[in-house]
TrEMBL record:
One of its GO terms (cellular component) is outer membrane. This is POTRA domain-containing protein. Residues 1-20 form the signal peptide. It is found in: Membrane. Residues 196-274 form the POTRA domain. The keyword NADP does not apply.
């Protein structure tokens, strides 16, 4: 479990006798973790004279130092200190961190972040049935320098996504770790399960657009691995086909039937096309790039023409080609007049 420990401790500081205090020594970073005492005073008013990182490997220490360097010169405050501790843990290689404030001068402090790192990753193995390609996940795992739960969980999630993309929807992954000679060896044990394959693709409700045109937009293909995420992509791809032909209210819903014994998946897209909407009123607002009438005359988007998503995109490019500007189309679908009104808002980049 990650530990966040704040040990902001100041020893009492006083001078005796009538002699003047010696000049203060410049703030320096400790070489060992500063000690604390039971009678120390907990103070939040000291000025941070120096920030130090102790206990991390050189490169990681340098990276952590950059995160907190800007705290020098600030007054100690529990709010920002707690946030910095969370940032340390979020790096993924810090197992434990505590902050220790040591007095310097009359009102200053050296703030030391004492950290303990996760061990470096040693050997990485993948144990699978041989039906999957774990190449991308293997490369990601080999680049994982520290055996932190966050980093290993990320590799595991990527591996599961890779398995799903190859049709293994029921695949599971178990992560095993073994500490050897100061390093952590990692083993990912994969149970692929059955592979799902697309065996049929059907459309229901497509009256204006032919099936062949819709299939061209799909990522799914016959006799290829089926991935549930592909359904989401294909739904959007079909909607874009309908948008290109003015059917702005078209809806698409993918459904599947899976044969548990063979992994064969039948995919069906249920479509509600809706009406065909033309372009309505067209206007340009914001930064003036010239005569609005002349600019609109050169547009592909024209009142009365069937709405087209690509036509709007081309007109945006025409406006932005006139200088350092950004053109944002504000689209209003008028259900009563069954048209699409567009206002191209031009702003400086």
């Amino acid at each position: 479990m990650k530990r966040l420990l704040v040990a902001l401790v100041f020893s009492a500081c006083a001078t005796t006798g009538s002699n003047a205090a010696p000049p203060p020594k410049p703030a320096e970073c400790p070489t060992t973790e500063p000690s604390t005492t039971d009678d120390a005073q907990l103070l939040w008013t000291a000025r941070v004279e120096k920030v130090c990182v102790l206990g991390a490997a050189p490169q990681q220490a340098a990276d952590l130092q950059k995160l907190v360097q800007n705290r020098e010169g600030q007054q100690l405050a529990p709010e920002w200190l707690s946030e910095e501790l969370r940032v340390f843990v979020a790096t993924g290689f810090v197992r434990e961190v505590k902050a220790i404030a040591s007095p310097v001068g009359q009102h200053g402090a050296v703030l030391t972040f004492a950290v303990k790192q996760y061990p470096p990753v040693g050997e990485v193995k993948f144990v699978a049935g041989g039906k999957v390609n774990v190449g991308p996940s293997r490369e990601a795992a080999m680049k994982t320098a520290w055996a932190s739960p966050i980093a290993l969980a990320r590799v595991k999630e990527d591996l599961v996504d890779t398995l799903h993309a190859q049709g293994f929807q029921l695949a599971t992954v178990e992560t095993k770790t073994t500490d050897v000679a100061g390093k952590t060896n990692v083993e990912f044990v994969i149970d692929e399960g059955p592979q799902d394959t697309v065996k049929s693709i059907e459309f229901d409700g497509n009256k204006r657009i032919k099936e062949a045109e819709l299939k061209k937009a799909l990522r799914s293909a016959l006799n290829t691995p089926w991935d549930v995420n592909t359904n989401v992509y294909d739904e959007q791809a079909i909607q874009f086909v309908y948008l290109e032909q003015g059917m702005v209210n078209a809806s698409v819903k993918a459904s599947t039937v899976r044969d548990a014994s063979t992994g064969a998946v039948a995919v069906r897209f249920t479509i509600v096309e809706g009406d065909v909407f033309p372009f309505g009123t067209m206007k340009i607002s914001g930064e003036k790039l010239g005569s609005e009438k002349e600019l609109l005359a050169g547009f592909d988007s024209k009142p009365g023409k069937t709405f087209s998503r690509s036509a709007v995109r081309r007109d945006v490019e025409k406006l932005e080609a006139r200088g350092a500007y950004t053109a944002t189309p504000q689209v209003t679908v008028d259900p009563k007049k069954k048209r699409v009104d567009i206002n191209f808002v031009v702003t400086p980049k």
